[in-house]
Each structure stands twice: as C-alpha cells, then as structure tokens.
Write a structure and sequence with these properties.
The complex is a heterotrimer.
Chain A (H helix, E strand, L loop, with lengths): L1 H16 L14 E7 L6 H20 L8 E7 L4 H15 L3 E4 L3 H14 L3 E3 L16 E3 L4 H15 L3 E7 L2 H13 L6 E8 L7 H8 L5 E5 L2 H14 L4 E4 L3 H10 L9 E4 L6 H14 L7 H19 L5 H10 L3 E2 L8 E2 L15 E6 L2 E4 L5
Parallel strand pairs in A: 1-2, 1-3, 3-4, 4-5, 6-7, 6-8, 8-9, 9-10
Antiparallel strand pairs in A: 10-13, 11-12, 13-14
Helix pairs in contact in A: 2-11, 3-4, 5-6, 8-9, 11-12
Chain B lengths: L3 H22 L2 H26 L7 H19 L3 H23 L4 H20 L2 H4 L5 E2 L4 E2 L2 E2 L2 H23 L2 H11 L1 H6 L4 H27 L1 E2 L6 H14 L6 H15 L7 H15 L3 H11 L2
Antiparallel strand pairs in B: 1-4, 2-3
Helix pairs in contact in B: 1-7, 2-7, 2-10, 2-11, 2-12, 3-4, 3-5, 3-10, 4-10, 7-10, 8-10, 11-12, 11-13, 11-14
Chain C lengths: L1 H35 L6 H17 L5 H30 L3 H23 L15 E3 L2 E3 L1 H23 L1 H11 L1 H6 L4 H23 L10 H15 L4 H21 L2 H18 L17
Antiparallel strand pairs in C: 1-2
Helix pairs in contact in C: 1-5, 1-6, 1-8, 1-9, 1-10, 2-3, 2-4, 2-8, 2-9, 3-4, 3-8, 5-6, 5-8, 9-10, 10-11
Classes of the chains: A alpha/beta, B mainly alpha, C mainly alpha.
C-alpha cells in the first residue's frame, strides 16, 4: 500500500515535468525572447496590471510591422507578486527556461533592488518603468538595469526648485520608513541648503499606519510653510485626512511621480487633496499622451489619466531601440551596450520634442529637464505653468 | 520477506536517485521548481510532526523560516562568516528560540495556540523588518553568494544541497513517526488525558514536536535564502504561514508522504496556471476548501484509504 | 487646557474608532463562539466583503449611500450564512475536529479575498466619509465625525445585541444552543438554525463595522485575515465568550495602539500588541475583563 503511494508521488512529480512540452521548431523566423516579470498580485498589483497591456500592445504593433530585422518579439510573462525573492525566481526562470535575452521588470522598489542585483551578476539587461529608489542608480561603469522613469533624487530636485519659485523658505518632510521616504529625506538633508531653503522638521511613518495624527501634529508644530511627502498611497491618504482634521493646510507637494499621485487621488476624497502638487514626467498637452491613453482604453476598456501608460510605452520602445542598435538580438551584452548607444530617441515623456538617452552614471531616463508638475484641482489633474 | 521499512527505504532511494540525475535531463525551470518543492517539503514535514502527529496547532511556521533565512544572511553579510558555519548557528538559534517560546505557547489549547503562534510569527517578522541597518528592513537584503574552494556556488549545488537536506529531514520524520516517540505523539493527539493517565509526559513530547517543527522550518529558511539570492520580510508574512498549512492539509496531515505531496501540488499549481496570475489566491482558497470538504485526510490520506481495503 | 484637549482629542477619537472596529469584530467572533464554540477565521473577510459590496454599489452601480450601506451589510450577512452552509454544517455533520473547522472558515475567507481581489485587481475600495471631509468644530476643536459615528454605532449595536440576547425568545434560544447543545435539541430548539443565525448576526455586525471604518482607512481584498487576527486578539484580551468583554478588549487594544503609534512608532505598537497577547495568554488566559457585565448567576 505504502509503496503504491510512493510510486504515485514519484509519478506525479515526474509527469508534471512533461506537461510543458518543448516548443515545436517552426519554419518562421526565430523569435527574440523577452521576459516580462511583473506584479500581477500583491500590494502593487494595480500598477502591474496597467503596465502589462501597454507593453503587450507595443510588442504586437512592433511584430505587425515586421519585428526587429524581420524577427518577432516573444514575451514570456510571469507574476512576481511584488515579492523580491519571487522576483529573482521569475528572472531565473525567464533566463534559463525561456532563453530570454532581456527582461522587463515591474514597479516595486524592493523587488527592483533584487532585480538589479540579479541582473548585475547574471548579465541580462532589464528595463523597468516604475521603481523610484536611488539605490537603483549605477554611478560607476555600465549598468544592466535601466529605468524609463525618474529617480527619487530627481523628483526631489524638481520640487525644491518649485518650492523656491513659490517663495517658501521653511520645509517640512513626511516619508515612509522604507526606501521611498529615507532616500528622499537624505537627499533633502544634503541638498536643501543649496536651494536657500531650510528643512525645519521631518517625520518617518511605518507603512500601513492606520493613523498619523500625532505625527502630523509633530510636523505642524515645527511650523513649515511647505510640506514634502514621500510615501505610499494608503499612508498618504491617511496623512491627508489627518491634516484636514487638524485644520492644517500648507502647500503640499511630492516627488513620488504621477503614478502614485493618481493612486492617492483614487482612494482619497478630492477636497482633502485640493491644491496638492506632484512631480510628473508627462505633459498633458502633448497629442502623443492622449493617443496612448486612447489606445490603452481601446485595448483594455479602462481609462487612465496618469503617466503609467506613457512611461511603459517609452520603456518598451527604448528596449526595442536598444536591441536594434545592439546589432545582435541574441546577445544580452550587445543589447545592454545598445542602451548606451541610444541618442536623441523621441520619447513621449517630457516636454514636446523631448529626446531620451542613457549615460554612464545615469541609467534612468528622466532628468529634471524632462519633469513637469501637476496639480489637483477639484479631483482632476491640471498642468502647472512653471516659470522657466 | 523484505521488511516494510526496508521496502520503503528502497523506494525512497529510487526516488532520490531519479531526482539526483534530473539535472542532466530536464531544463532549469523544472530544477527550480524541485528546489522550491524541496524547501517547502522540509517545512511541511516539520509542521506535520507538530500538527499531524502531535495534534497541536501552529500557524506561525514562518517565524522560524524567517530566523533561518535572516541569520545566515546577516552573519555572512556583516561578519563575513561562511555559510556552512552560519547555517548550523541559525538552526541552533531557532532551537533556543523554540525552546524559550515553548513555555508560554504549548500550555495553550486550540484557538489560543493558533493565535499565539500567529502572534509569535508576526512578532519575529516585525522584529526583522524594523531594524533596517542590520537586516535591510522592508527593502530586503542581498544574500551573499557562497563560495567553496574559491568557486561561487550555483544553482546545481543548491539543488543537491536541498536534496540532501530533504532526504535527511524525510528520514528523521519517517523514523520519528514510526518509533515509540511517534506513538507517544499520536497518543497526545488522540486523547491527551488518557495519554497522561498512561504515564506519557505530555509536555515533553509536545515540546519535542515543536522543536522539530522549528528547526526544520529554520533549515528550510536558510536554504531558501541562499538559493534565492535576495530576501525581504514580505516572504515571511502571514501568507506564507497559511500556504504551508494549506500544503499540509492538501497533502494529508498525519501521513509521511502528505507534506511532500502537498508541497509539490501547491508549488506547481501557480506555474501551471500561468495565464491567470491574479487568480492564484482564489485558487489556493478553493483547493483548501475542496480538500477540507471532500478529502479530509488529504490527497495521500484518501489514496491510502482506498488501498487499505485491497 | 483647550490646547491639551485639541491635541489629545483626535488621538482619543481615532483610538476609540480603531478600537471599536476591533471590538466589533471581536463581538462578532463572540456571537459565533456563544452559539457554537467555533472560531471563525473568516470574520475579517465578512467585514471586507461587506465593504466590497458597498463599494461596488457606490462606484459601479452608482447607488446612493443610504442604499449602498444596507446592501453592503446584507452582503456581509449573506456571506456569513454562506460560510455556515458551505463549510460548517458539512464538517460538523462529519464530526470533524474543531481545528478543521477553523481551517475551513479560513479557506472561505481566502476564497472571498481571492474573488474580491481578482475583481478589484487588489486595489483599494474607496468609500468617502459619510458626511464629507470637513470635521465638525466644537469651540474650535476639530471632531472627526466618522469616528463619532463609529463609536455611536458600536454603542447601539452592543445595546441591541444585549436586548436581543436577554429580552427575546430567539436570543434565549441562541444562548441555550451555545450553553448546551444537546439539551437544547431536547428542548425543541433547532440548533442548526441557531448556528446559522449566529453567523448571520456576526456577518451583520462585521459588515457594519467594516463599512463605517472604510472611510478612515481604505480596505483592500487582502485585509480580512489581519483584521480577523486583531479582532481575535481583542477577544482573548477581553475575555473568552463574553461579548462585552471582547468589545472592551478591542477598545483597549485600539487605544493602546493609537497612543504607542503616536508617541513611539507603529513598529513598537504592533510588536507590543503581540507581546501583550502572549503575556495575557500566559498570566491571565481568561482575559482582562472576563467578569464584565456577566451577572453572578451566570458565572461558571
């Protein structure tokens, strides 16, 4: 009896191996294998579920136009659940099982750090369109990890410029105890005096705090004129609420980018966020932006009004260009070098006519030059006219 | 007449033999899955001793998993110690922590023990999350690669390492379950008062089962961290506790093979259902529900019952 | 003095609101415990499901709040009933171990989280504060009306439950079922229906608690189990089997967490919760308020 259970177990394990047959060799051109590891579940799933359709759409358009040098791109999609260890697992599978030469990885900064560490040791280029952490910046030598969005310090630089433009001097900071907050705080502490401003107080809040009234009070008591916050959607929403209860309405701004800003707007009553501003990497007046939003709506049936679709679009097209310029679509190193060969590539992020590139020491696409600012008025986004 | 034990061992070695030559035959993704199955099977085996054989409740297995994962990582990263030294140290630390926690936790019954073990696991998770300077905090930390004889160890090495530990864990649980100790554990499970009346030292056996559970989970954690290359507290949150529990229930608590089969099923299922990623959680719930409702003894238990009549 | 109050009052209200959430979930736990000695680990998911139905009615069906709220509560109640029918009765009929039934409720909870999560893509389900975002002003002291509503609802629910239990025949039957199932059957009480009723009531309470608290801190699909754990801790802290003690336990928990979070950090608050739980389980396992509101004759 027992032996039969054994054999069944062994048989079960072995049979499951043969469920996935091998790909039949076809007479069509050999596809270029690209891996796609994203959070389809987990805390940041709402972002992953936006990015995948855009990327897939870009790939389909490319393949319909003949692919790269006649070869189509084949996407291998896996869910990493927002878990850094799982992310590394999916990247391993993508590389070893599917022979992928490059990958797209999702939004989460913690998983991004894991992905970058893996990319550096395994020499597979990865492009990402969302993680903010400064730890992902490769300052020396060539990177294997690229981003089509901005980095925390870039956002911070832009908002400090904006605060100065508005004439405020005293700045307060609220951030997450995670990297998003601590990175921004260190940047502020090092650089704020260069703008002639003063950091009068700061509070760090643990994630998923149900209430931040006491922290808000503490920050208010330091009497700032402008408040910079760098936190996730749920906690920022709680913060907005608590500020309202305290009757405290300073100028509030953030460098977390429009993706998170729209998340906060989605879960918070609009009158709590009236007048709040945020760094963004898109300009609503550009027709390309509307085109991408329309395409997204047609493809998925959902509307978007933030920068997730455009920046994913840029990420996909930068990857295609890197493969093209690299010269050898089957060689990951050539593709990585291809990223650095990109010069003056038209991107949909940034002001009209913006061109994108990467440099040694800068593996993120968006610099302060390409940033814009967005304000919430009556629950809707509007571009802020900046003095140049 | 070959004894039953000899027969079972022969079958075990056949299975291990097949697993040993697998790297030469199949692609890396399958090896990756086997590594994961091995790790979760070790955890489920430990949980089986405590829950399946001793009849207690433990929804906090991720606590020891977390300790086993972080301690070698921190020792390697911060102090430069070698993995093969840090590994046993973490198992020993888990032993101590388990022994210390056994006093308050094992006096509880049923639901109280459930919530007590959950509380323990959450406290451990929070402890490791909130000291970022040492453990990297919520952002996680890279696990330094292990070097042996000046060569960085790769996936194949970890595959065999996990296989070896799986075999050891399996043998320990097999002989434990079939021994006098196993008999005592089952006596505690089936009727505590009667067992006490027969002279069985309840607390001693509960503690033993708890420590086996803790140390095996810790070993699984150390292996997991090293083969993943990167850990973060998210891996050790509530969902992992539930996942291992589901593995045990699906496989069959109180059977030797149950935890292994359960680990295999629950690890492979998300990869089979790759197309519908966001339904993973729903699928886990449905599997657990189906097993509890229709296959109360788990897959292995149901199969055993079928064959018992022949 | 006014400044002190202005500083402290929001903290107290938040602590009481959060505490009421935990306390009401603990109360809902106890309803089921009182009727059948079962622990329902899907309790938090009852609340989450109620929020999901209410949110769906508000945002997708564009139903006004005064209709969406009861819809959500009904949704939670029906979910409770479904749990009982799908897993409790079949398992009980088979004579399963109590822990298997706990596991069964957990399975139902995971299914609910999975369904809601798949539909919402694990995004938050926003429900706006019922009376808008401007706090009431009492002599320049801002008062969070959502918090006040939660506290008020808690009081009403507890009084309502007390009246139901002690002044109605149905409540008497429910108490009898929990006290001694076999004798109740002999007395002609339909115990199976009583257990179903207890799940229904517990669903109603959880649903109300969840929807009232959703404007304070948004719910998403996977917050059911953590809420259940906190509610269960409230039960253990307060007193097993005593609904009013569970409520007090929850309020204490909420207040302590609010104070610790504010003055130390939320890390310490969460860790403190667990350490306190272990200490209470070790030193005073019957709970801190177990004698609260239980008349002499019923002490056992």
């Amino acid at each position: 009896m027992r032996r039969i259970s054994w054999l069944i177990t062994g048989g079960f394990i072995l049979t499951s191996f043969f469920v996935h047959g091998s790909n039949a060799a076809a007479a069509e051109p050999k596809p270029i294998n690209i891996g796609f590891s994203c959070d389809f579940s987990g805390v940041t799933a709402w972002e992953g579920n936006v990015e995948f359709p855009i990327f897939e759409m870009a790939v389909k358009e490319l393949n319909a136009a003949g692919g790269i040098n006649g070869r189509p791109i084949k996407l291998h999609v896996l869910d990493n659940g927002g878990d850094p260890s799982k992310t590394v697992g999916t990247l391993k599978v993508i590389k070893d099982a599917n022979n992928c030469v490059a990958s797209y990885y999702g939004i989460n900064s913690a998983s991004g750090i894991a992905a970058k560490a893996w990319a550096d040791t395994n020499n597979i280029p990865i492009i990402s369109c969302g993680p903010l952490s400064d730890k992902l910046i490769q300052r020396k030598g060539k990177a294997w990890f690229f981003r089509s969005n901005l980095s925390t310090s870039v956002g911070a630089e832009v908002i400090l410029g904006r605060i100065k433009e508005l004439g405020y001097k005293r700045v307060g900071f609220m951030g997450s105890t995670q990297a998003m907050g601590t990175d921004c705080l260190s940047y502020l502490q090092e650089n704020i005096s260069k703008f002639g401003l003063e950091l009068v107080g700061s509070v760090l809040c643990e994630p998923n705090s149900k209430d931040l009234t006491i922290q808000a009070k503490r920050l208010r008591d330091t009497n700032p004129e402008a408040v910079i916050y760098s936190n996730y959607a749920a906690d920022s929403s709680v913060w907005a609420r608590n500020m309202k209860t305290l009757g405290w309405q300073p100028y509030v701004t953030t460098g977390v980018g429009l993706g998170l800003f729209s998340a906060i707007r989605d879960i918070t009553p609009p009158d709590l966020l009236e007048g709040w501003e945020s760094v963004a990497q898109i300009d609503f007046t550009r027709p390309e932006i509307k085109m991408i939003w329309d395409k997204y709506a047609a493809y998925t049936g959902r509307r978007s009004d933030d920068e997730k679709p455009p920046r994913t679009w840029d990420g996909a097209h930068l990857l295609f260009e890197a493969i093209r310029l690299g010269g050898n679509p089957d060689d990951p190193t050539a593709i990585r070098d291809g990223f650095y060969k990109i010069k003056n590539f038209p991107i949909v992020s940034g002001p009209p006519g913006a061109k994108g590139s990467f440099e040694i020491g800068r593996n993120y696409l968006i610099t302060p030059r390409e940033c814009t600012m967005v304000v919430i008025k009556s629950g809707k986004f509007a571009m802020v006219q900046r003095k140049k | 007449m070959v004894s039953r034990v000899k027969r079972d061992l022969i079958v075990l070695f056949v299975v291990l033999g097949v697993a040993a030559v697998l790297p030469l035959m199949v692609r890396e993704i399958y090896l990756y899955l086997v590594r994961l199955i091995g790790i979760y099977a070790i955890m489920a085996l430990g949980l089986n001793i405590f829950m399946g054989y001793c009849g207690q409740v433990n929804i906090g297995v991720a606590g020891f998993f977390c300790i086993g994962a972080y301690i070698p990582t921190v020792l390697q990263g911060k102090l430069g110690w070698h993995y093969l030294i840090a590994f046993p140290i973490s198992a020993f630390v888990s032993l101590l922590v388990g022994w210390g926690m056994s006093w308050p936790l094992l006096r509880l019954r049923g639901h109280s023990m459930a919530i007590g073990t959950i509380a323990f696991a959450m406290a451990v998770y929070l402890l490791f999350e909130r000291f970022p300077t040492i453990t990297g905090g919520s952002d996680g930390t890279v696990v330094p690669a292990m070097t042996l004889f000046d060569q960085t160890m790769g996936n194949i090495f970890y595959y065999y390492l996990i296989l070896v530990f799986f075999a050891v864990a399996f043998l320990i649980c097999y002989f434990l379950a079939n021994s006098q100790i196993g008999l005592a554990l089952r006596a505690v499970r089936d009727n505590e008062e009667a067992a006490a009346a027969m002279g069985v030292d309840i607390n001693h056996y509960k503690r033993l089962a708890w420590l086996v559970n803790g140390v095996l989970a810790s070993i699984a954690g150390s292996l997991y961290a090293q083969q993943a290359g990167f850990i973060s507290p998210d891996t050790f949150a509530l969902s992992t506790n539930v996942l291992v529990l589901v593995m045990l229930c699906v496989g069959g608590p109180g059977t030797i093979l149950g935890p292994v089969v359960g680990a295999a099923i629950m690890t492979i299922l998300p990869y089979l259902l790759v197309k519908i990623q966001q339904y993973t959680l729903l699928m886990q719930g449905l599997v657990l529900f189906a097993v509890l409702r229709f296959l109360p003894d788990g897959v292995v238990g149901a199969i055993s019952k079928r064959f018992r009549s022949t | 003095m006014l400044k002190f109050l202005a500083d402290f009052l929001p903290i107290i209200i938040v602590g009481l609101s959060l505490g009421s959430l935990f306390g009401l979930v603990g109360l809902a736990f106890t309803v089921i415990i009182n009727a059948s000695q079962l622990v329902n680990f899907a309790q938090g998911d009852f609340a989450m499901f109620g929020v999901a139905v209410c949110w769906f009615a508000l945002t997708v069906l564009n139903v006004p709040l005064w209709l969406a709220f009861p819809l959500g509560v009904i949704g939670a109640a029906l979910f409770g009933l479904l749990t009982e029918k799908a897993i409790i009765t079949p398992l009980q009929r088979r004579g399963a171990r109590p822990f298997t039934m706990i596991l069964g409720t957990m399975a139902i909870g995971i299914i609910a989280a999975g369904v809601v999560g798949a539909y919402t893509k694990f995004w938050w389900m926003k429900i706006n504060p019922f009376l808008g975002s401007e706090p009431w002003k009492l002599k320049k002291l801002p008062i969070d009306h959502q918090g006040v509503m939660i506290i008020f609802a808690t009081v009403v629910l507890v009084i309502g439950y007390w009246v139901f239990l002690n002044k109605t025949r149905l409540g008497l039957a429910l108490r009898a079922t929990g006290f001694n199932r076999d004798v109740s059957i002999l007395l002609g009480i339909q115990t199976a229906k009583m257990v179903g009723l207890s799940f229904l009531i517990s669903g109603v309470i959880s649903g109300i608690a969840g929807i009232l608290c959703a404007p304070l801190s948004a719910f998403n699909a996977v917050q059911g189990l953590p809420l259940a754990i906190n509610g269960f801790i409230a039960v253990i802290l307060g007193g097993w089997g005593n609904p009013y003690a569970a409520l007090l336990g929850g309020i204490t928990l909420g207040l302590v967490r609010a104070l610790l979070t504010g003055y130390l950090s939320s890390a310490y608050a969460e860790m403190a919760t667990f350490f306190v739980l272990i200490i209470v389980l070790t030193l005073r396992p019957q709970g801190l308020f177990s004698r609260f509101m239980i008349p002499e004759s019923k002490k056992n």
